[in-house]
Amino acid sequence: MANYKDILKSKSVGVAGCGGLGSNCAVALARVGIGKLVIADFDIIVESNLNRQYFFVDQLGQKKAYALRENINRINPSVKVEAHDIKLKSNDIINLYKDCDIIVEAFDLAEMKMMIIETVLSKMPDKIIISGIGLAGWGDFNSLKIRQIGNLYICGDESKEVSEEIPPLAPRVGIVANMQANVILEILLNS
Amino acid sequence: MKINLNNNFEEFDFNELNIKKLLEVKNFTFKMIIIKVNGSIIKKGEYEATIVHDGDKVDVIHLISGG
What we know:
Number of domains of chain B: 1
Number of strands of chain B: 7
Oligomer: heterodimer
CATH architecture of chain B: Roll
Structural class of chain B: mainly beta
Mean pLDDT of chain A: 97
Number of strands of chain A: 7
Largest sheet of chain A: 7 strands, mixed
CATH superfamily of chain A: NAD(P)-binding Rossmann-like Domain
Structural class of chain A: alpha/beta
CATH architecture of chain A: 3-Layer(aba) Sandwich
Distance between the termini of chain A: 12 Å
Strand content of chain B: 35-45%
CATH topology of chain B: Ubiquitin-like (UB roll)
CATH superfamily of chain B: Beta-grasp domain
Order of helices and strands of chain A: HEHEHEHEHEEEH
Distance between the termini of chain B: 38 Å
Helix content of chain B: 10-25%
Shape of chain B: globular
CATH topology of chain A: Rossmann fold
C-alpha cells in the first residue's frame, strides 16, 4: 500500500476563495503535503480579515491569492501553487479546476456558493466539491457536521448566517475549513 | 407517501407533491436554495412541473453567507 505522502503528492486541489475557509483549508492541505493547489480570489487583505484568515499584518493591502501563495511557500515550498487574482464566474471554474481532483467551495456570499455548486453539479458532474455552509459565531460545536449528497459534501451547521451580531470568527471558521481539508484527505487516501 | 428528505424519512398526507408545494408544506422559504430529486438538480422554473413520489429522495441545500 502506498504511503499517504506519496498519494497526496500526486493530487491537486482547487480552492475557490482565499478568505476564512480557503486560506485555512489550503494551509492545512499544504502542511500535509498536497501536490498542487489552484487558489483563486479577487479581493485584497483588510484588517477585519485577520480575525480568522491566514494572513499577517504586514500583508494588509495585498492580493489574497498572491499573499496566500507566499504563506504556503513559507510553510511547505514543495507544494505547487497556482494563484489567480480573479472574481470567479462559472466558465472560470470549469477552466481553472478541470484538472483538479477535488474542488473546495470557500466563498463568503451565499450567491457565490450557489453559483459554484450549481456549476460543478451540472457542468462537472464527475468532480467532487466540498462546501462550507454555516460557520458563524462561536461555541455550538456539536451542530457542525458533514452531509454528503452524491459528489457534494457540505461541512458546517447549515443554519447560522453571518451578521453583525454573529460574525465569522477564527475558531469556528477554522474548524469548518479543517473539516473540509479532513474530508479531502478521507476521499483521497481511502479511494 | 413517504419520502427521504435530507436523509430523514418523512410522511406526507399526499400521494404526490410538486416541489413548489413541498417547499410550502415544509415552510422552506429560503431565497438561495438548490434542490435535487433522486440525484438530479431541479431548476427554479421546474418546481411546479417536478412531481415527488413515494420513495423519492429529495435534497434541499440552503445557501447562507459566511466564509
